[in-house]
Amino acid sequence: MEEAGSSKMGNVEDGKRLFLPAGRTKRRPDMIADQIKDYIRRERLRPGDRLPQERELMDTFQAAKGTVREAMKALETQGLVRTRSGPGGGAFVAKQSTQQAMELLSTHFFFAEPSLSDIYAVRKALEPEVAALLAGRMLAADLADLEDTIRIYDHPPADLSEQYHQRVAELDFHSALAQLCPNPLLGFICGLMHNLLRELPLARKIYADATPFSREEGLSFQYRLMAALKDGRGDDARAIAHEHMIFAETYMLRRAAALE
């Protein structure tokens, strides 16, 4: 039986925690940052709207200047606030772009890179659901954009440079689907997996490898998937996407073993 107050997660380093455990108090600047977020929501502020001056924030939250500045710096790092100096300057509400958010999260994994198996475990679980959600809901223009992406790699590469760009363009196909996903959280997580693959040194090494790969089989999966998406066959889209992820994982792991 565990002692009172103990936790199975008690030995996890703070830098690796995914959450703030119950009973742990946030630092004062972090609490002020949360309160400023609440203020932005409550006042329905939008990107570009000005935030109160520093003195007003100090009075509102009964906080010292240094505490308020640290809180604002944290919000600026998160991309929620931007500051401008000079006439008409001050602090303004900002909106972090999806790409900025992706880059920030990718940096989180810089010193603890996920393995190919880690990434494909997520892809196999989630990307089939993206496909199922999109079936019958894609516009003709969206399908045309996917076809344009496929044209980048629907022919044998002329050299290794083109082969590398073709391999990355295959990821672009899946990223486009993730971006169109009606569930924005699901699409974002899938897009993050694609970005991690683009930046993973081992994956880049595989993409640049001169060993021939089954491009035609990969294309077959994507054309079949597009047909299911166009026809609104959700179950088929899910099954094809799952089969495609298994095929891609098998290839990547096999090439990784050969290269390492």
3D structure, described in words:
The protein has eleven helices and two strands, in the order αααββαααααααα. Residues 1-7 have low confidence and may be disordered. A two-stranded antiparallel sheet has the order 1-2. Helix 5 packs antiparallel against helix 11 (234-259), helix 6 (140-150) runs antiparallel to helix 7 and helix 7 packs antiparallel against helix 8. The protein has 260 residues and is mainly alpha-helical. It is elongated, with a radius of gyration of 23 Å. The protein has helices at residues 28-42, 54-61, 65-78, 98-108, 116-134, 140-150, 160-180, 184-199, 201-208, 215-231, 234-259; strands spanning 81-84, 90-93. The longest helix is centred in the C-terminal third of the chain and has 26 residues, at 234-259.
Features:
260 residues; mainly alpha; 11 helices; elongated; disordered N terminus
Short characterization:
The protein is mainly α. The protein has helices at 28-42, 54-61, 65-78, 98-108, 116-134, 140-150, 160-180, 184-199, 201-208, 215-231, 234-259, and strands spanning 81-84, 90-93.
Count of separate DSSP helical elements: 11
Radius of gyration: 23 Å
The mean pLDDT is 89
Q: Which runs of at least 5 residues are low in confidence (pLDDT < 50)?
A: 1-7
Distance between the termini: 45 Å
